Amino acid sequence: MSLGYRLLRPALFALDPERVHGLTIRALKWGLAGGPGPITAPRLAQRLFGLDFPNPVGLAAGFDKNADVPDAVLRLGFGFAECGTVTPLPQSGNPRPRIFRLTRDRAVINRLGFNNRGHAAALARLEKRKGRSGTVGINLGANKDAADRTADYVAGYERLAALASYVTINISSPNTPGLRGLQNPDELAELLGRVTEARRTTGIARPIFLKIAPDLYAEAIAAIVEACIAHGLDALIVSNTTIARPESLRSRHAKQTGGLSGAPLFAPSNRALAAAFVAARGRLPLIGAGGVASADDAYVKIAAGARLVQLYSAMVYEGPDLAARIARGLNERLVRENLTLETLCGRDAGHWT
Questions:
Q1: Which residues are catalytic?
Q2: Neighbours of 186 (CB within 10 A)
Q3: Is the bond preceding residue 97 a cis peptide, omega within 30 degrees?
Q4: Cα–Cα distance for residue pair 348/94, rounded to 1 Å
Q5: pLDDT means over runs of 10, the chain (353 residues)
Q6: Where are the domains of the chain?
Q7: 0.70 cut: is pTM over it?
Q8: Domain 3-352 sits in which CATH superfamily?
């Protein structure tokens, strides 16, 4: 953590978390955060899905919901950034308060409910960055009151895919009632079939990722892996927030409803990631999310089966320079141990299964 953030954090933590988030987005818009740009080195750079990743550390969806600041995010040191979750129509989400810091647990609980300004606003923002470098994905969701949620994902692909490096189908948020039901086999097959058909008929060939929950048995994860492979998806993101509440939680907000992220998610998301790695047998690349707060965490996540990692909640506690520190630290460890990301990937998956 930088000295500046260490001094600023007590004042920020005295404010409502959602207000702090809004202030952070404004600071990035105004160029107040600065940053070194994407950190890279020969052992960090990868080309996957036809895309260039200067390092494997990405920003997870949820931070830049409306694609307001992807380029500012990349300047913080991230290798890629994922905007969203975006729904076809604007929606305000759930009533406030809806974000809770679990400071003693280095965790966050949110029940935001896909609050965002809709496809039109995201489209306008993404159009403004045409021609710029950097890998910027878009995370798609469905409106809470949609009659046909699968149609919302199809509409998102048709409208936004051309302006994104990749598209993520988010069916794993616990804060939209019934959404996680799309992970069930029949619903998932229809969803993936219709979205990949949209990719074919539009001629907009973008990598498609699926983001799943950590609260699944290994058998269910294996079935999802097979469905992704059968429908030609490019990667699986493991995982979203959890509805579980470990007994180890000590913070006063531990019983709040919503998705839990941060340090307590690290182990369960690694178990889900390793289960997906074992099921995939090299046929489907994985992106690991959940609890990454250090270079060592990123190393462990990759060793559990990830080709790329994503983070968000840890920035609340560690500050905006976290991605750069993780990338540099990860590179130092790879050099020290004479490893590449490819040789490290999945090496310790058996530890988690």
A1: 173
A2: 9
A3: yes
A4: 39
A5: 90 98 97 92 98 98 98 98 98 98 98 98 97 97 97 98 98 95 96 98 98 97 98 98 98 98 98 98 98 98 99 98 98 98 98 95
A6: 3-352
A7: yes
A8: Aldolase class I (3.20.20.70)
